[in-house]
Batch of 3 targets.
Target 1
Amino acid sequence: IGTPHEIHELGIGSRQIAITWRPPSVTLAPIDGYKLRHSGGQREILLRLDEVPCHAYQSPLILPESFCYTLTGLNPRTTYDIEIQAKSGEMYGPWSAPAIFTTTQDIPVGKGLLEEVYTDTESIKVRWESPSALKNDITYFVAHIRDPIKADQVQKPVNVSSLVADHHFRNLKHSQPYNISVEGGSHGKPMWFISRVFRTRSRAGVCSEYIEAPSNLMIVDKTDQRMRISWSLPASFEDDGNH
């Protein structure tokens, strides 16, 4: 039995961590479950395959073969090492390399909002809305953008006043997922946190929107084994000849 890999965060709260992972690349036995453990007491959780579907989650990190699960009952502002192993009958494969995540501060209010405003091949603009119970208390926001796989900062954190509720991250790579998080606080004390994964658009997708389709497709002549056709270039091209 091989090792599960590519363990990524889908969302983090004060007492829970949602993750996704891919099954072992190579295995000689059918996988019928997974076992998870984390550093908070080394608790082990045995999961059947029907307990780890991804249909309730939304993220560009989720692939057709991915599995998903949310660890609950965790402690706020605590770092956890999470490991996963595959199961086949009574056999277990090796534990995966630990994935490290940190829960947020415990905030007994609503979640708030973080959503995409605009995305192209090199930038992502987001807006956020803190919970109504905290709006009058928050005096600043800090927006972060990280690599969701390595958890590295892609750019320096952006500090904005409580009067600003959006930010445009620029100079990004195309077709890449980015974990964007926003922290709200007052006088240096964090009071609210929200995080989501967004993806920049692919260059191929953008080009297809701006290049018109060829027109006037016609059959010039044909035989049993050959066909000759002609078409006109898009009107925006200088060469209007047939090909």
Target 2
Amino acid sequence: MMNELVRNQCDVTNHQVNVQFLLQLQLEWQKFVTLVKQSQELKTVSYSKLYDILKQDQNEVNEIRAKRLARTANLLVLVAQQQP
């Protein structure tokens, strides 16, 4: 979407870029997105600064993702065992 705005020569504010970036993140990032929204001024902080802030939480996001995948895999095994 941002590329289309730029391509059509629309003015894109820093705030719009940051909000769009945060909206595109996967569900695992939701907790960290909320923290960033509360602690940073999205109108003034740069896109790269937002990325750097969120990158610090990458390990925790990986753990959340692994737990979710393990839970899903366990459910699939359970369903497979129930099938005749």
Target 3
Amino acid sequence: MRIQKKLTQETLAFDANIPISQVGRIERGEINPTLSTLYTLSVALHITILQLMDFGVFNPNAQK
């Protein structure tokens, strides 16, 4: 999602008020973000938490 919106990790981290290293660790799957972190990331990305977490599960028309 970050790349689709053409944001750097640094920009997203700044907008979400979280450390840059945390963005990278979340993207690499090294840590599981808290609900509050998911919320701040979704606000920074201008999307809902549901959109952030959507892996095609909520869209019956999505290809599997």
